[in-house]
Amino acid sequence: MDPGCRHHAVIGQPCQPVASDIICSLTDQAGPHLALTAARFSHHSTGMDLPGIIEQMEAGEQDRALVALQSFNKEMSQCFTFSREDNQEREHLGELLLNFLNRELQPSCLLACLETVRILTRDKHCLDPFIGRSAMLTLARYAGIAIDQPAHTNQGLLEESKAADLEDGDPGALLQEPPPPSENPDQEVIVEALKSICNILLHSESGQVVAADLHLITGVAERLKQWKRPTWNHEVRFSDLRLTFLLTALRVDVRAQLAQELHGIKLLGNQLEATLCLCWPDPLVTARKGYEGVPPEELPPLSRQQTELAMEILKILFNITFDANRRKVDEEEAAEYRHLGALLRHCLMSRADGEERSEEFHSHTVNLLGNLPLLCLDVLLLPKVEQGSIEYMGVNMEAVNMLLEFMEKRLERGQKLKETLLPSLNLLTESSRIHRETRKFLRSKVLPPLRDVKNRPEVGNALRNKLVRLMTHIDTDVKNCAAEFLFVLCKESVSRFIKYTGYGNAAGLLAARGLLRGSRDSGIYSEDEDSETEEYREAKPHINLITGVVEEEQPNPMEGMSEEQKEYEAMKLVNMFDRLSRTSVIQPMQFGSDGKMRAMTTEDLKQLTTNPLLQAEEPADPDSEDEA
Hints:
mainly alpha, elongated, 628 residues, two-stranded antiparallel sheet
């Protein structure tokens, strides 16, 4: 599943961050595209001599344990399914490994122990040894993200260790705290510990609680602040970000802590800026260092490592900003979001190494743009118009045009539209609603002056035709979002909306808004130039408003009838509706005073029976509004 698309199920309401789609790659791999599923491997844990490995570990000699663990790690490196028969032995092995990790170990033995922990934490059924506070703190220390604990916390840790010692029959072995990392830490050790913690978080809710209680997010944030130093390699940086993503996706409290206490938007924005090597030639306008003034299409693609890190940052930012466009933000927050918006514009205009990777990168960018407060989206239009750039009404429309092309590509693909299409479609809708230049540019692309009045609006390969087809999609969210986009491009004018989509296609949105009886004022929208073409003006009197096209005239079924016959047929029709209604086959509806449909009561039907030719209030002529 596309990791960027699962959001915005409701128009204007991006859903809360979830871990499901984005955590599709196994967390103990080096990168997001090294995902290994159980179906691809036949390795099974029954092939290893676990009792023999446990015997070597219980002997306590590092050299013998090292040989046994290295053999286990080599054999099980690609194993992701485990036999239930070995659960107890694997749990015992996990306990022995934690005993070792609380001792002074040779570097090679330490790394082998952590590699084994990483493999064992893939099994969600054998995590008990690793989800305790003491075990998580041990791994956090080796990962370099443990923070100083209050005195009572250390006392609790020692008490827990003592209890574990008594159960294992080895009092005293774990009374010492794990040694802190050295000043020049082994980055392989850090990565293995981080991957183990990620596996635990992915599989255990208890582990998530402990990680939040230990404030691991604070430790990770401290290291993220050091990204300008050349100390940390790509593996450490990526693993830090993956852990941060999991914590913010799975824990609401951690999400809030990173966003507020740790100033996560500014922190991660700085990381994104550093990762993409950006500079600021003008306020809120970015450029790649060494390529100032170079058009986006001429920039070299981002490296694989840059793209991997940037996508992780974007996913974390999505998690901590998911409600930003649904609440009021102060001036300081708005400045942060506009700064972030400028970075996202650069992401949108950048290419990764390969079309598939570029689309994934842009998908995460679009998802995050949808979280920003609407007033901050003006940064998409700020860059000056340069030679060769797309200009409309004196405004640079490169970013908006890129969003439109991205949306159309997703629409053309036609798969999982709710997850893949709605984020970009919703973003274009809200941008059009608040920015006049954006709306008018998109209208020129999506709803150009109407000339074809012989084919139905849903027939054809133009973007308008594709979007109108979505208005009758089986998924309610998809059809509502498509209708909303076109309605906004029509300045919420009922007459113009019907003109481009047909009354039948438009009926769903109009009914939901109480507009079936006619049009309303266009509200905040400015006046546009007359969009009627000569072809449309000539055909307008003959257009069937239901289908939106000119149709051949049909014979009048009541031609030649007397008034008495017409009344008789009308009575028959009313009585038929009455019978179907009484048996609950249908539910007759009528317009209420608010313009919305309501169920007809028995009294309403009786009134029609008494006076079958009684007419409801005449609806407003949908074409009576000026074609602004």
